[in-house]
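[Discussion] Sanity-checking designs against the backbone

I'm trying to build intuition for which residues belong where. Below is a structure token string of 327 positions. I'd appreciate it if someone posts a full sequence so I can compare it with mine line by line.
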């Protein structure tokens, strides 16, 4: 049976009262100009996040603890009007342009802080903490978040790296084309026992998406990890796996790919949706679409979230540093 979106992504609609409570909290954090110093805010985000509505805090904690769904989508979040949020950017902002976090970005980081620690990669979007998922003309044909003409294939975010986030978040500021985010998963019982064993062996080259400015990986990793009854996985169907002589590994990967394609669901994010996916248990991608490059195109804000920041301590300059330095 193919699932519908509600069975795998828990959807939470904010009540008016909860929205009010959130607005009050944002008013306090943003006073007086609807933005804050981004770096400073991150050191305070956990503390402020304790003032989000209790129901939402409980939902987020239960999502991390029980792994009861593949993602959470908090709906009806307050987004300011078009004038205030501005046009969809036509370039990836420089670090200077991201020194201040906007009211919407603050809310996204507050939710993310309930899931873990927000971090960034030096190799993508100039090391910015909040990434822009926007169409760029020069990348139209490419398999990356700023592409649009082709389907962006299934991947777990940053699968190539051992410090890949446990969760990853997308906040929707606008999606006039209703372009769906694609989500999929697999159930271990759908895999042949031998396939499962092979997928758990370090026989796979899991490449980085081309948006990352990193050297090509040649290290072989297992696709599956964790508990093999309910495995976690890392995969990137956009990068050439290059399994050369290992036909058995290729067949196992093909079997998993077929299951992921069969289970795929579509979720068209709407303005004010904040989606947080379990990056160890769900893959995501995006349908193709046609942007106009007129400032009104689809615009999402992306965050990377780790359950355990110390895991990457050797790649960051100080304990509280948020940027993983790689090349
Ligand atoms: O555009 C989307 O819905 C997903 C894009 C994506 O995979 C990403 O930003 O990492
Ligand atoms: Fe992605």
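Best answer:
Here's mine. Compare freely.
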């Amino acid at each position: 049976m193919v699932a519908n979106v509600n069975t795998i992504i828990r959807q939470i609609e904010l009540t008016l009262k909860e929205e009010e409570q959130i607005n009050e909290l944002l008013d306090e954090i943003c006073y007086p100009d609807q933005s804050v110093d981004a770096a400073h805010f991150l050191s305070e985000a956990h503390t402020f996040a304790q003032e989000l509505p209790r129901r939402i805090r409980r939902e987020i904690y239960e999502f991390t603890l029980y792994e009861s769904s593949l993602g959470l989508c908090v709906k009806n979040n307050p987004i300011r009007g078009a004038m205030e949020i501005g046009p969809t950017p036509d370039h990836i902002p420089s670090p200077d342009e991201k020194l201040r976090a906007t009211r919407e970005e603050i809310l996204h980081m507050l939710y993310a802080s309930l899931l873990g620690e927000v971090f960034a990669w030096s190799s993508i979007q100039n090391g910015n903490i909040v990434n822009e998922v926007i169409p760029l003309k020069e990348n139209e044909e490419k398999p990356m978040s700023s592409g649009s003409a082709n389907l962006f294939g299934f991947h777990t975010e940053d699968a190539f790296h051992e410090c890949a986030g446990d969760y990853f978040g997308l906040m929707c500021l606008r999606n006039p084309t209703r372009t769906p985010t694609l989500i999929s998963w697999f159930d271990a019982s759908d895999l042949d026992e031998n396939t499962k064993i092979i997928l758990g062996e370090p026989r796979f080259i899991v490449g980085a998406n081309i948006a990352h400015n990193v050297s090509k990986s040649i290290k072989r990793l297992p696709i599956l990890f964790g508990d093999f009854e309910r495995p976690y996985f890392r995969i990137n169907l956009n990068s050439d796996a290059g399994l050369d002589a290992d036909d058995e590994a290729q067949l196992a990967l093909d079997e998993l790919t077929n299951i992921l394609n069969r289970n795929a669901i579509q979720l068209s994010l709407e303005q004010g949706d904040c989606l947080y996916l379990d990056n160890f248990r769900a893959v995501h991608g995006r349908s193709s679409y046609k942007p106009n490059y007129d400032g009104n195109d689809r615009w999402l804000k992306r965050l990377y979230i780790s359950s355990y920041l110390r895991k990457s301590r050797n790649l960051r300059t100080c304990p509280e540093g948020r940027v993983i330095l790689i090349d």
